[in-house]
């Protein structure tokens, strides 16, 4: 599926990290473990499009997605010493990005609640924008989904993960990921 939102291509691309072969990232991880100075930079370049694509699909805002991608790579850097280089990197990265996006949602909800309380106290009735304004139809439809539905549809439909792979990244059962993705599709079609 080739989906575009605000100029961002969510489809497969020739340089996408989704086509990861068993040893593609392993050599870079081994180099990182060995202390090679530029190994993490090469890992970052290899996976930056995938991480941004998932973050943008889930958050729907380019600036938020860039912030989330940066945070995801910081967490990756901190945890890479304990990562087994013989395991594929992408499932671990998906989990990191999903968790960063969850944290972002929680932060945004707290900020929005604070803004709402301040607006009520001032009795101005001014609505606070949550920064998700976009003219793109698909991005607007994604914003109408719950955070979990958005994560499921981005991972399953836009990233092409199986429901069990998406479930691992989301930290839920496979059937839950499948149901969330189906519910999200239904809402998107109705939109």
Sum this structure up briefly.
The protein has 191 residues and is mostly helical. 65% of the residues lie in helices and 2% in strands. The protein contains eight helices and two strands.
How does this model look, in words?
With 191 residues, the chain is mainly alpha-helical. Helices cover 65% and strands 2% of the residues. It is built from eight helices and two strands, in the order E-E-H-H-H-H-H-H-H-H. The chain has a two-stranded antiparallel sheet with strand order 1-2. Helix 3 crosses helix 4 (89-122) and helix 4 (89-122) crosses helix 7 (163-170). The model is unreliable at 1-22 and 122-135 (pLDDT under 50).
Any descriptors?
191 residues, mainly alpha, two-stranded antiparallel sheet, 2% strand
Estimated share of beta-strand residues: under 5%
The H/E string reads EEHHHHHHHH
In what order do the strands lie side by side in the largest sheet? 1-2
**Low confidence ranges:** 1-22, 122-135
Number of E-type strands: 2
Distance between the termini: 19 Å
Q: Any idea what the shape is?
A: globular
What class do helices, strands and sheet pairing give? mainly alpha
Radius of gyration based on Cα positions: 18 Å
Treating each run of at least 4 consecutive H or I residues as one helix, how many helices? 8
Please identify the oligomeric state: single chain
The largest β sheet comes out as: 2 strands, antiparallel
User: Helical percent range?
Assistant: 55-70%
Average pLDDT value?
78
């Amino acid at each position: 599926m080739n989906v575009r939102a605000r100029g961002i291509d969510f489809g497969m691309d020739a340089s996408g990290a989704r086509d990861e072969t068993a040893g593609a990232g392993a050599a870079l991880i081994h180099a990182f473990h060995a202390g090679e100075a530029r190994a993490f930079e090469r890992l970052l370049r290899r996976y930056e499009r995938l991480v941004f694509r998932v973050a943008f699909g889930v958050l729907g805002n380019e600036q938020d997605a860039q912030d989330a991608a940066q945070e995801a790579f910081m967490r990756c850097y901190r945890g890479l010493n304990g990562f087994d280089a013989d395991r594929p990197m992408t499932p671990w990265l998906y989990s990191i990005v999903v968790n960063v996006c969850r944290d972002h949602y929680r932060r945004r909800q707290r900020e929005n609640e604070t803004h709402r309380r301040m607006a009520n106290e001032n009795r101005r009735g001014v609505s606070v924008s949550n920064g998700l304004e976009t003219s793109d139809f698909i991005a607007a439809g994604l914003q109408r989904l719950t955070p979990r539905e958005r994560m499921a549809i981005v991972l399953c439909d836009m990233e092409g993960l199986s429901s069990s792979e998406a479930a691992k990244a989301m930290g839920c059962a496979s059937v839950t990921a499948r149901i969330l993705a189906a519910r999200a599709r239904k809402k998107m079609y109705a939109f």
